[in-house]
Every structure is written in structure tokens, then in C-alpha cells.
Amino acid sequence: GENVEQHPSTLSVQEGDSAVIKCTYSDSASNYFPWYKQELGKGPQLIIDIRSNVGEKKDQRIAVTLNKTAKHFSLHITETQPEDSAVYFCAASIRYSSASKIIFGSGTRLSIRP
Amino acid sequence: DVKVTQSSRYLVKRTGEKVFLECVQDMDHENMFWYRQDPGLGLRLIYFSYDVKMKEKGDIPEGYSVSREKKERFSLILESASTNQTSMYLCASIRRSSYNEQFFGPGTRLTVL
Known about the structure:
The complex is a heterodimer. By secondary structure, chain A is mostly beta strands. Chain A has strands at 4-7, 10-14, 19-25, 32-38, 45-51, 56-59, 62-67, 72-77, 86-95, 100-104, 108-113.
């Protein structure tokens, strides 16, 4: 079945530096790739997503890139700030007519050092 | 403000008890999901429902059942709780056949003693 691998599991960066999280997926039929941020005591929240017909998407300090041939996608956070500290999940999704199935990566705990 | 709510934030139960976790969404979403979250394993899908009274097994359905009698409510049932079901349980919903955001509840941390 579909599998999503995420690396690294933990990441610590200096405030102001960039952070990169990488994911690979196994099912070439996957066509939607969301990224979620989970802060302490809360459920995950969508921060950015990308569809399979797009190679890159940017929203202020965060960007996502997708390489369909290699089946990998990455999250880039620039100019990191303390509030970026959280657990980040990548996911791959296959959309059907009546439902969609989303497979999540194992998560990356990002810590921003002051 | 859209919202997914879960009946309890923290729950402690004993082995063998029947446990009900309730989830309610106010967005008129067709699809609802139950995940469990464990360190190093990410979010694993237990069951999902794409309409009232419809349910589909996810990746780890063993030991769980679900109920969707109303569109806004999706219940997860542990028929006989076991210690290996100690986990964080997350409910989510999404509008059918869209690339829209999957909204998550705050989670229920269940401890089975």
C-alpha cells in the first residue's frame, strides 16, 4: 500500500536560519500533498499544500517543492522564528469521487534555538 | 469559525472497558476520519466515513469500530479497551472530493490501565 517516509524525525535550527523537511511517497497515483503543523496540545493544521500538476508553491516564509519523477516533496521554512517550533507532518493523498485517503509521514519535531 | 470538537481531551479507562470517543463537526463535511497518533509513527488511519451510515476500514481497524448516524457526528468505539490502545486519538473532516483542508479536532489522549 501507500507509504510516506519523512526525514528527519527531529530538527534543531538557529532562529533566522532555514529548515528543510523531506518526504518520499510510494504510490505514483498520489495527486495531492498537504503539510500540517501541530502545536503542543492541538490538532494538526494545514499550512501549505501542493497538487501533482505543480512543481513549487510558496506562501510567505514557507514553500513546498514536488518532484513527481522521483516521488519526493519537501517543505522549506526560511527566516525561522520561535513560533515555528512544532511537529510537522507531510502527507500524500489520492482523491476519489466519494472519498480521499491521506497517508501521513511520521512527523518532524522542529525546534528553533534563540 | 469552522470547528471539529472531540468529547474529551483526556480519558482514563481500565482494560476491558467499552470506550466511546465522540467527534462533531459543524462544517457539513461528508468525509470524517479517526486517526491515532503515536510517537515515531505519525498519524495512522483507523476508520473513515464518506457519508452517513457509511464506513471504511483504514490501516489499523483491529479492536475498533465506528458509528456515523448523523452527518455531523462520527464515533469511535473500543469494544474492550486494551493497554496497547493507549494513544492520542484525532478526528478530522473534509468536504467530499475537494482539495480543501482536512480539519482536525484537538485530540483525545486515552490512557488504558
